[in-house]
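Hey, can you fold this one?
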Amino acid sequence: MQPLSCSLIGAPVQSGAGVRGCLMGPDAYRTAGLRETLVDLGHSVEDRGDVAARDIAPLNHSNVAIHNLAETAGWAEALQEAAFEAARSTDLPIFLGGDHSLSIGTVAGIAKHSAQQDRPQFLLWLDAHPDLHTLASTDSGNLHGTPVAYLMGQEGFEGYYPKMDAPIPAENIFMMGLRSVDSFEHELITQTPVAVHDMRAMDEEGVKAPLVNFLNKVKAAGGALHVSLDVDFLDPAIAPAVGTTVPGGATFREAHLIMELLCDSGLVTSLDLVELNPFLDVRGRTASLMVDLCASLLGRKVLDRPTRQFA
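Sure. Predicted structure:
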């Protein structure tokens, strides 16, 4: 692939998760050598350091289960601005998380930039969960379960999250790897044109054909593609460093194949790496795997992959 200008933006967010530790994620990626790996692949990489959350006045909501609403909104504001600026000045912004509530800000900022470029925004959501809850519907109160509902313009976020300038049409969203969906989210999926290829579908049909179909749709529309990769998309046997482990996730080869197909397409314009919790990792194996997946997305081939100790 052609060399790209990449920017690394740390998002040490843990206000949206129920388990502490995601705030250490950005530094774990740096320690695992993400920048050096991408430079070795021929890309120019600028590490812009970590974003800091905005101070937001306390926010009250009728759903008393919600945790850390003002803090999460403060992160969303800061990350939306950082993502918009990064998209204006670099080929590929990479956001290092941090729990998945960071996508409230990152994807919103990226979509705003795409709208200004008159390009439709597409979203590939690689996750065990659809994250389709609204502020009113969440029972856990953990706001990392709300990004996609917000990004596609569902009601109930006004006055709490930043204004979504360019909502992403549901038909431009493709979810892969789902295997933990509650009744509210299931109903919303059936009522919208969000495309879903869950783990049963992956088992039965593989990953190539549906992903290529989605990528062809992005290409035909001249779209910008944001990829949001959650650690819990992967099977916890190979990626234990996540607070929301769900058995039966994507295998090592399935995940790398997805990244390689994305690389071949040349369509990815921005990337989230989320939910890495180094406190739960084993000798850095999850951070190293996520770095390797990012390398596959950015041009590393099977024959180029170095030997690594995973035990």
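The chain is about 35% helix and 15% strand. Let me know if you want another pass with a different chain boundary.
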